[in-house]
Structures
1.
Amino acid sequence: MIDRTHQPTIVAVSSAPGRAGVAVLRVSGPQTRFVLETTAGILPPPRVATLRTLRDEAGDEIDRGLVLFFPGPTSFTGEDVAEFQVHGSRAVLAALLRRLTALPGVRLAEAGEFTRRAFEAGKLDLAAVEGLADLIDSETEWQRRQALRQMEGALGLQAGQWRSALLEAMTLLAAEIDFSDEGDVEGPLQEEALQIAQAVLGSLRQALGSFSMGERVREGFVVVLSGPPNAGKSSLLNALARRDVAIVSPVAGTTRDALEVRLDLDGLPVILIDTAGLRESADPVEAEGVRRAQALVERADLVLSLRAVDSDPFRMPADAATLAVATKSDLAGSVRPDEHAISVANGQGLAELLSAIVARLRGLAQGEPALLTRERHRAAVAAAIEALQRMAASPGAPSELLAEDIRLAVMALERLVGRIGVEDVLDTLFAGFCIGK
Ligand SMILES: Nc1nc2c(ncn2[C@@H]2O[C@H](COP(=O)(O)OP(=O)(O)OP(=O)(O)O)[C@@H](O)[C@H]2O)c(=O)[nH]1
Ligand SMILES: [Mg+2]
């Protein structure tokens, strides 16, 4: 345990900045009781919201509000924690912060410092901290569910199960090494260890399979609008965004730069990207736009391939990652059976197109929220898989060698939950939190 008695006590506004009915100010550290007693009178009973008048050093009233005291170690950070729920005005918060930070041993918190202390006290593992960060950033229902599950420790729990199974296999191999005489063939204990490793390997592979979905839900599904000039791509972007984002005009080649909007489609986070109309162009700027459009199509999760009903219907091949869309259905023309007919002019087919997009993206998902959501998770699990695959491919090899592969796999899992090799990850992660988290 680290000695925290001389750690500074930190204070920060934990609610969003700006005017609000109520704002929350948090305090954590050894001076918390003193902070409460000097500003809010006698210490309130633990975990009971208590109405108090908050006073400055001259005894003048700053505000009235609810005060809560969470004694350590059963608090968020593991230290003594206090919460002030006061009126959410700039002046109240400024006066209260001035008062608190003037007390000895108290200073303003740095970004993510509350969560960092919680992590250091063992209240959250690294994956849970990442889940908390994602939950605070979550904008759609799928993001919320995935982040919540991770914050509640689903990945940490699973990693712990993998790890203890592997440690059991390691023990078996150690016994095998102890009991076997020189020149002996490797025996039943090694066999048993290999079986355990195989089972863990299967489970790791399954988790790895959820990564691409986890990453998509965290970062957003990329849906690209593609097609010839004047197909109505920018018009559709504006209609789906319900905002006038992109310039629309009858001039072919209007859009050059890719424009993106973030949408919440039935709980799925989507990054919808409008691109330049595809055609040969002598204009270097337009040609660059077309090149970028093609590159975006390559990395899209779903491409909406647009053409106007009054254009040649057989020009555009569609594939699995494409939805064919016939635009301007209010005009005379033809629609192929595989096309979704829409009109931005009269709204026809837009709701159906949205449902089709959601159905396609949902089809990429398995039922449960994904376990792996970041490149860091993928890399750690892939490293564990690599080590165990090597082991599984060498039955009968000296148990010392197999034990080394298990050790490497266990190390990878320790990195996953942040037991080792965390400093650089922590610095970037906590820097991404706001002050007061
Ligand atoms: N009648 C009708 N006209 C439409 C519809 N959608 C778009 N248009 C018109 O078609 C023209 C081209 O629309 P845009 O949305 O700019 O087409 P685009 O595909 O973005 O074109 P580029 O950016 O040049 O590649 C504009 O004059 C729009 O008003 C529609 O549903 N019905
Ligand atoms: Mg356009």
2.
Amino acid sequence: MLIFRYKMRKCVVYGGCGGLGREIVNYLKIKGVWTLSVDIGSNDAADANVLVSLTDGWTAQEKNVLSAIGVVLKGEKLDGVINVAGGWAGGNTVDPDWVKNADLMWKQSVWSSSIAASIAAHHLKTEGLLVLPGARPATGGTPGMMGYGMAKAAIHQLVKSLGSECSGLPSGACALGILPVTLDTPMNRKFMPDADTSTWTPLTEVARILNNWLENRERPSSGSLVAMLTEKGNTFLLLEN
Ligand SMILES: NC(=O)c1ccc[n+]([C@@H]2O[C@H](COP(=O)([O-])OP(=O)(O)OC[C@H]3O[C@@H](n4cnc5c(N)ncnc54)[C@H](O)[C@@H]3O)[C@@H](O)[C@H]2O)c1
């Protein structure tokens, strides 16, 4: 008698409580993927949760998240680490809060992305997937949202380093940056009720693409920055580098 051992795929969703993060957790669950959410709160739809303490500094967050994930995984390896933590804040140089906002953007986007990279280095399988959250506008100047642009540009740079030889990732690992313009999230719907949503990228479409990459289908080459563009409700990908 033949016995097939089916190994459930495993994926960390960093920022698993956000608009996009929840959609990805739900989508991967339907596809039979075991999910671990890392966020400041729990996502009950995930199979496991690791909580980040915002009172911790950058290095303490990395140490505590890595240690908690090690305890949950018990030596098992991950198929994917998808980071969609982040946020948005505006402001140019005359905005009294622009540096404060830049500090928050750095913490939300760059701290989380570097910790996600550490998780991948320690726990990803060979040929595993690492995805970090960039933003298309940050491929150019972003005068109305300077801190956001700086943080996202740093992520773009990190993706390129991770996609280079000797990045420390397991062999054959694929590091990609997703660069949306506007996502069709509940929060964007709430705060921009009159906007033209035909150019907003649906969350299910992002989740579908990420699941394809997780299954090693249609992956761009490692280090790619992948713009996600939507026109008249149709989403397509464009490589930026
Ligand atoms: N919403 C958009 O239109 C849009 C456009 C371009 C890029 N993006 C980027 O896509 C990603 C997903 O967007 P979203 O709208 O789902 O964001 P969101 O604000 O709904 O969710 C972000 C999640 O990240 C978590 N988070 C923030 N800092 C964290 C930290 N240090 N550690 C752990 N968790 C942390 C938050 O608690 C939240 O659950 C973000 O990186 C965002 O900047 C979004």
